[in-house]
Amino acid sequence: MIFDATTIVYILEIVVGGLLVGVGVHFVPVGGAPAAMAQATGIGTGTVQLAAGSGLTGLLAAGLMMSVTDNIWLVLASGAVGAGIMVGSTMLTGSWIYAYAVGVPFVSAKVTYDPITGFSQPPYIAPGTVGHGIPTVCFVSGLIGGMMGGLGGAMIYYALYLINGNAALSAMFAIGIFMVNAVIASWNIQGTIEGFHDPKFKKWPFAFRACLIASVLLALASVLITGGA
Amino acid sequence: MSVGGSAGGAPSAYEPKKLRMYGLVGSIVGIYLGSILNSALNTEVFSFIGALAAIFAVVMGANSVRRVCAYGIGTGVPSIGMLALGMGIIAVMFGLSVAETLGFGMLGPIITLIYAGVFGYIIGVIANKVIKFNIPVMEEGNADLSMAGALAILGWSFAISGTLGYEDIVTDVLMTGYIAIIFIAGGLAILHPFNANLGPDEKQDRTLVNAIMVGGLAMTATGIGALLTQGLSEGLLQIIIGFAVWYYFFKMYYKLVKRDASAVVGTGLLPPTVQ
Amino acid sequence: MDAFSMGLIAAMGALATVAGASEDIESDVGSQSNPNSQVQLAAQVGNPHRIYNKAISGEPPANALWCATAAIVAYTLITAFQMPALMALVAGASVAALFNGVFSMSSYFGRNSSQARFNQWIYLDIVRYTTPSIMAHAWITSFCIATISYIMVYMLPTPHPFPMPIIALIWGLAVGAIGSSVGDIHYGGEREFQNRAFGCGLNTMLSGQIVRKAEAGLRNSIDNAWFCTKFGGPATGMGFGLTVFLDNWRTTVFDPVSQASYAILMGVLFILVEVAYNHYIERSTRRKYGPYPEYKGDVAA
């Protein structure tokens, strides 16, 4: 195989894609088991689960776009928008349950005033909990995180497809690289995070460095793989 | 979700070193045996040996999940399984492709194993030094998981395609999409045993028997795949052997459950509480 | 854009809604994923129970397994044996349901026998009548998602380049993530703790105090599922249905080759509408429910 300038570009694209996935996981508001009982703010699931679900939906949209065009901006944009719609629908229908079935207002206990809307938070927090629901700052943060994940997945798929030209091989590879980066980022988060207003968010440089090392190794392996017959 | 007590130190009757050796040797020998028999006798009947070899790798992976998750890493058990398979699939494709490009097709499994072990170890080092976990068994546990995932995928891919050649595996396993079931069934085979037996009274033999049972189920799934890629007789052989493995070890699992549970009753009211 | 492809998109949206609803009920009947942590905790704080403790990883990998199984069986039957598509999908879903039964039973047995020191019994009648219900809902979920994957690969005018089983795997991960985020709140925040006051989150003092004694007799998982089908299941169905429908509707109305930018702008519009709707719900709940009377601080409401 030929090792020249375009190969370096592909390696960079895979590395940047992996970093987007890893840092994007920090934006998604995940409350874990307590959020499923309306005991903590955020979506009531695990970090890897939601990141995988949304990022891979973006990969699906990007794969369709890649089969009809070669324009990198269209492929990346469709991956981001596909993932964004999935995260948005998830959070919106979750909000229906919090508002109408459990009957709680949306608040976070980590800030006194919502950074985006300015609503006050402490008077609306149920006693014995640390917030519940998905306030606007968490919703916007979740959209940013989901779209970054979709963007990263689409970028990885784009580079792999141009290297080996095989859609199924590139898709499974992209899924594998996505999983590795998402799990490393979730180890950094240690369970729950509320978005970019959460003090835990300041830990993102650790995940950046870890995902950088892992993505470089994975990118070097990927460029050596041919597409098969 | 490990709420309220995991295996705390993971007491084991079988040492990790012995299980690692059985796992690695069993799966590598199985894959090479199946491949050599297939090419020497010009048939595809011996592909099922690859699926049995994958079960050895799965048991090794399930035990390393026990050891790593006993320290409480903050995320759930499922993420570890997905990580193992993510690392594994890249190692398998890399190993087979490089072996084919270099011209030594039979070296594929060895290159896969070396890459998987090294990459898993590096991820373990990252977890301890960059993310600051400081878990003692993290490096070797991660290397174990990566190798287990890679060998399980390799074994099951060989069971579906019948040879270790890179082009054949891409055509038979990836283009048809059977890699999807290998990926997820392998991941669940490694993570389900510990997750399903989570609790203070978890016993290693019950967990590992569960792993073999799920491996038998995955073999049935690859048998269904082999119906398309290899033919009716090879596929049916794998389905029948997979079903037999599953049945035998499910009965053994149920016997161990009856041994360990406080009571197995046909029906009843709530038990008297123990505070 | 023509009538046939718009009809297919409508069918995909409907199938996705049904799949989302049945996935959530399957996880509620088995008490899977996050609310299961309370079921696990209950025995450890002295509340043994008759709830089905199905702990098969999280919902995304588990649902990915059922959907991928259905897809590979259907793909094999369609390609090797030329079976008609609908029969092949039915056979695939049946195999997936059988796998689900094995995993569910092994998890109930395993988790309860690992809690022997808390005197949590294994009830064989619970296994006998709850497991078929779980398997049935998994059948519906995997059938619908395998059919969606089949339509995307074989029937749409711009077919998808990925193979059918990989698409089923990805949609399985997505439906599991949505079911875990949406429907499980109705089960965990409402039904599991129905004996506490309505209108507030779960107080940490109440952890582990799940409802074990029902209206007449002992509470079991079938009672829980009955409740959650009223709201949690359909809401989850809406979530997954919106995702599948809005994603594919844009690329069918606007031809991906020539009008791709319109499709992307349409997607951005949908996202903005969702942000606005969530903000409206947030303001409405603050206005109608008001602050909690127990609040003694000095931040103005």
Spans of at least 5 consecutive residues with low confidence of chain A: none
Strand order of the largest sheet of chain A: 1-2
Low-confidence stretches of chain B are 1-9
For the largest interface in this structure, which chains are involved and how many residues does each contribute? A-C, 84 and 84 residues
Number of helices of chain B: 9
For the secondary structure, the number of strands of chain A is 2
**Beta fraction of the residues of chain A?**
under 5%
**DSSP E strands of chain B, number:** 1
Please give a structural write-up.
The complex is a heterotrimer of chains A (229), B (275) and C (301). Chain A has helices at 5-24, 32-36, 47-66, 72-102, 136-164, 167-189, 204-223, and strands spanning 107-108, 131-132. Chain A has 229 residues and is mainly alpha-helical. A two-stranded antiparallel sheet of chain A has the order 1-2. Chain A starts with a helix and ends in a 6-residue tail after the last helix. The radius of gyration of chain B is 19 Å and the shape is globular. The longest helix of chain C is centred in the middle third of the chain and has 32 residues, at 124-155. With 301 residues, chain C is mainly alpha-helical. Chain C has one domain (3-253). The chains are: A mainly alpha (229), B mainly alpha (275), C mainly alpha (301). Chains A and C meet through α2, α3, α4, β2 and α5 of A and α6, α7, α9 and α10 of C. Chain A: It is a multi-pass membrane protein.
